[in-house]
Amino acid sequence: MIVNRAETDFWCANAPAPAFYDDGDGGGDLAWRSRLASDFGNESCVVWNGTFDTKEELEAAVEANRTRKCTEFEYDRSFWRRTIVQEWDLVCDREYMQKWTQQVTFFGLLVGVIVSGIISDRYTYTQVLLSFTFLMYHVRRCIICIAFK
Questions:
Q1: CA dihedral angle for residue 29, residue 86, residue 72, residue 22, rounded to 10 degrees
Q2: Each residue of 79-103: pLDDT tens digit?
Q3: Is 74 helix (H, G, I), strand (E, B) or coil?
Q4: Are 31 and 85 within one domain?
Q5: Left if phi > 0, otherwise alpha if psi is -120 to 50, otherwise beta: which for 65?
Q6: 31 CB-side CA count, 13 A
Q7: Any idea which of 9-13, 48-52, 112-116 has the lowest mean pLDDT?
Q8: Cα–Cα distance measured from residue 44 to residue 33, given in angstroms and rounded to the nearest whole number
C-alpha cells in the first residue's frame, strides 16, 4: 500500500510529439514536452488539440487556443518510484483527493486507538497487546505478499 503523496512532475501521456518536432537526437518527445511546458506553464492538465503534420497547423491551433484535457499521465520517477499520486492519478481534476488520503489514514488511526482502548479495558492489557500485535503482524505480511506478487 503506497500512502506517500509526494509531489512529482507529470505530463500528458496521450500527447505524442508531431513528426516534424525533433530535439536533435531523432526523437521529439523531450522537445515537445518543453514546448507544452512553455505554452501552458505549470498546467500539465491540458494539451493542444489535434494532430499536426506541419508547424503551420500547430501555430494555427495555438492562435485559436484549441486545447483538450489530458486523460492519461506519465510521471517523473527519477526520485519517487511509486506514490499514491502516481498510482491513482491524483492530479488535475482529482488533486483535491490527495488531502483526503491523509485524513482517512488519521481517522483510521483514531478509530483503532479508541477500539483497542475499549477492548483493553474489558480484557487484560497484556492479552490485548499480544493479540493485536500478532494480528497486525500477520495482516501486514499478507498485504505485503499480495502487493508484491
A1: 0
A2: 878 888 888 888 888 888 888 888 8
A3: strand
A4: yes
A5: left
A6: 12
A7: 48-52
A8: 10
pLDDT digits (tens, 9 = 90+) for 11-43: 777 666 666 666 555 555 666 666 666 666 556
Distance CA 5, CA 119 (A): 33
Shared domain for 82 and 102, answered yes or no, is no
Is 64 part of a structural domain of the chain? yes
Residues 95-111 as b/e (b if ≥16 CB within 10 A, e otherwise) read eebbeebeeeeeeeeee
Amino acid (1-letter code) at residue 138: H
pLDDT tier for residue 1 given thresholds of 50, 70 and 90: very low
Q: Based on the fold, state whether residues 85 and 103 are members of the same structural domain.
A: no
- Indicate the number of domains in the chain: 2
Round to whole Å and give the CA distance between 62 and 15. Answer: 15
Burial 40-79 (b: 16+ CB within 10 A, else e): eeeebbbbbeeebeeeeebeebeeeeebeebeebbbeeee
Of the chain, the end-to-end C-alpha distance in Å amounts to 13
